[in-house]
Design brief:
Layout (H helix, E strand, L loop, with lengths): L17 H12 L4 H10 L4 H30 L3 E7 L2 E7 L5 H8 L18 E4 L2 E4 L12 E3 L12 H8 L9 H16 L19 H7 L10 H13 L12 H8 L8
Parallel strand pairs: 1-5
Antiparallel strand pairs: 1-2, 3-4, 3-5
Helix pairs in contact: 2-3, 5-8, 6-8
This protein binds FE2/S2 (inorganic) cluster (2 copies).
One FE2/S2 (inorganic) cluster (FES) binds next to loops.
Length: about 270
Amino acid sequence: MDVSQLPHDVPDDGGLSEDEKAILGELQSSGLPRREFLKLVSYTGAGVMGIQLLAERKAYAEAASIASETAGIAEASTSSIPVRLHVNKAIHDLKLDPRTTLLDALRETLALTGTKKGCDHGQCGACTVMVDGRRVLSCLTLAAQAEGKLVTTVEGLANGEELHPMQDAFIRHDGFQCGYCTPGQLCSAVALLDEAKRGEASFVTKDLQQPPHELTDDEIRERMSGNICRCAAYPQILAAIREVQSGRKISQTWGFATEEQLAGIGREGSHETV
Ligand code: FES
Ligand code: FES
């Protein structure tokens, strides 16, 4: 209802009940003129209808205020900021929403899709990359936080055609099945080598004064515990990391079929498997 259509003989507020006065005070704080309130009270006699109308008007005013705040947020989100990212061997000057995660900047803006999005909540490790040599969860890191630092993704581990020793070991030890977790596992494992060289302790390190430089299986398991593998390739991943970290060869638990074995598969009636 348009209040301008209401009667103009407005009473003073001397006849208002205590409840009406309280409502008047509340409504005036939301911007409703005193005169309009009194008009409505007069129109309805007891003022009940007017109070209902005013409550509606107050609700509309609050809704309008929320809508205007929301519009402000939407407008802010369209404003991007310049971010210079040094990823692997290239420098990229980007314009990004300030809320863009490093993971989304890598995958969506730079098309470096080697880094995987698993949980997007810091729980699976699939998005692990290195920033200045230390592993970080890129889903929990803003792209702007990586400015001025060196970001290394799985695409940057190999040296041209030459695989990083950790990549080579993962292949030889069959450290993956579906491969979805593998980029994160590799980045974590490579960063772990430097952590060990720096003598950094973990939760299972017994002597904090002298952390071991050669890591035990328990140390490696603990340090890799943030990287989840749904295929459960853990034993092979452990073997690969242990081999590279210690510098000593570890025997493979699998091998390619020999020519003789392959020929046996084709023999009619044979149940031989390899
Ligand atoms: S995607 Fe980042 S931890 Fe799972
Ligand atoms: S190899 Fe499939 S999730 Fe790890």
